[in-house]
Amino acid sequence: MLGNFTFHNPTKLYFGKGALANLAAELKPYHTVQLIYGGGSVKKNGVYDAVTKILKDCGKTVVEDGGVMPNPTTEKLYEGVDIARKHHVDLLLAVGGGSVCDYAKAVSVSVFCNEDPWDKYYLRFEEPDCKILPVGCVLTMVGTGSEMNGGAVITNHAQKLKIGHVFGSEAMPKFTVLDPTFTYSVPMRQMVAGIYDAFNHICEQYFSGTDDNVSDYLAEALMRSLVVNSRVAVKDHTDYEARSNIMWAATWALNTLIAQGKTTDWEVHMLGQAVGAYTDATHGMTLSAVSLPYYRHILPYGVAKFKRFAVEVWGVKPEGGDREIAEKGLAALEKWMDELGVAKNLTALGVTPDMIEGIADATLIKNGGYKTLTRAEIVEILKESL
Ligand code: NZQ
Ligand code: ZN
C-alpha cells in the first residue's frame, strides 16, 4: 500500500543547451556570490568563464571558493563557512559535480550555525535551527542527484567517516542549470561511475518492500533508460540525446520522487561510503565494487522483486524457477557493469584485507532492505568484494 507522504521539491530546473542564460534572472535578488568550484575542470571546459561573465555583467560581488575536492572534507567545509561569514555572502553558487553541490549545501546550513556542523549534522543528525543560505547549482557531472535534493555528504578523514545528511527542502538548491554539453568533458571513468551511481540510487529505492507501488514502475523506466543511453554514451560521449537522457534520469533517480510512499534500502551506499572513508575512492566505483556480492547475498530474502527486476529491467524471459530468473537479472546487471567498465572489486580501489574490520565498523546498518545485515554479514560481503 502506498504510504502517506508530503512531497515538496522546490528546486527550479533549467534544462538543455544554452540553459545557463537563465542564470542572470536567478541572480537578481543577490548581492555577494560565493562562487564554488572544484579542482579546475570548469576552468578548462569554459564553464567558469561563461558563469563569471554573467556574474560580472550582472554587477555581482564575487568571492572565489575553488578547490572543492571529490568527497569534500570537514576542513574544506570549515574554510567555506569562514569565507561566507567574512564576506557576508548571500548566495552560494556551486559550479561542478556532486561534491561541489553537496559542499555548497553543507556550507549553507553551517554559516549561521553556532555549533560544529560535523558534530551537529553528521554525528548527531540534528536538523538546522538557523538561517540557511540559498544555494544555486550549475551541474557539470551527472550521477549524484545533488542538483535537486537536500543531500550533502562530507568526509572526516581524522575520524575515518564519510556521512551523508539529507537536509529538508529549505536546503535544496533554489535553482539548477542542467546543460548536458557541460558534461562532455567529464573523463570516461567518471562518466561511468556517475551512471552507475544514478542506477544504484534507483536500486536502493527499488529493492525494498513487497507491495505494488507506482514508484517501482517509475524506477524500472528510469533504469531501462539509463541502460539504453549509457550503451550509446560509452561509444560516443558527445551524443547529445544519450547524455541529456542520462542527465535527466539521474536527476529523477534521487530527487525523492521514487521514494515516496514506500520503504527504501540504502545499504549499498552505507557500504560504499565506509569504503570511501578509508580510500577516498570515486563514489560510484565504491558502489559498483560491493553491489554484486551484496545483492547476491540478499536475493534469497527478496526473490519476487529480484525476479521482477530481471524481467522488467533486463528483459529476462520469465521461464524456469523464480530464483533462477532472479539470478539471471543479476547476471545481466553484471554484464552491463562490464560494458561500462566500472570497478567490480574493492582491491581495485585500494582496499586491503587489514581494512575490512575498520570499514565494517564505519558501515551504518539500515533496516529497509530485504535483510537487515548483521556485522558478521557486512564483513562477509566486504571480503567477497575484495
Ligand atoms: O574537481 P574538478 O576539477 O571539477 O573535477 C571533477 C572531479 O575530479 C570532475 N569533473 C566534474 N565535472 C567535470 C569534471 N571533469 C571534467 N569535466 C567536467 N564537466 O569529476 C570528478 C568527480 O567530481 P565529483 O563532484 O566528486 O563527482 P560526483 O558528482 O560523483 O560527486 C561525488 C560526491 O557526491 C556524494 C558522494 O558521496 C561524493 O562525495 N553524493 C551525494 C549525494 C547527494 N547529494 O544526494 C548522493 C550520492 O549517493 C553521493 O553520496
Ligand atoms: Zn550515490
Could you explain the architecture of this structure?
The protein is an alpha/beta fold and 386 residues long. It folds into two domains: 12-182, Rossmann fold; 188-385, Dehydroquinate synthase-like, alpha domain, CATH 1.20.1090.10. 47% of the residues lie in helices and 11% in strands. The chain is built from 15 helices and eight strands. It has a six-stranded parallel β-sheet, sandwiched between helices. Strands 6-7 form a two-stranded antiparallel ribbon. It is globular. It binds 5,6-dihydroxy-NADP and zinc ion. Residues 144, 197, 201, 269, 283 line the site of zinc ion.
Key descriptive features of the protein:
single chain; 386 residues; alpha/beta; Rossmann fold; Dehydroquinate synthase-like, alpha domain; globular; binds 5,6-dihydroxy-NADP; binds zinc ion
Name the helicity range. Answer: 40-55%
Shape: globular
Strand content: 5-15%
Helix/strand order: EHEHHEHEHHEEEEHHHHHHHHH
Q: Give the C-level CATH assignment of the largest domain.
A: Mainly Alpha
What is the H level of CATH, i.e. the homologous superfamily of the largest domain?
A: Dehydroquinate synthase-like - alpha domain
Tell me about the biggest sheet? 6 strands, parallel
- Count of strand segments: 8
Instruction: Tell me, rounded to a whole number, the average pLDDT.
Output: 97
What's the N-to-C terminus distance? 39 Å
Q: What is the structural class?
A: alpha/beta
State the CATH architecture of the largest domain.
Answer: Up-down Bundle
Provide a count of the helices.
Answer: 15
Strand order of the largest sheet: 1-8-5-4-2-3
Spans with pLDDT under 50 lasting ≥5 residues? Answer: none
Number of domains: 2
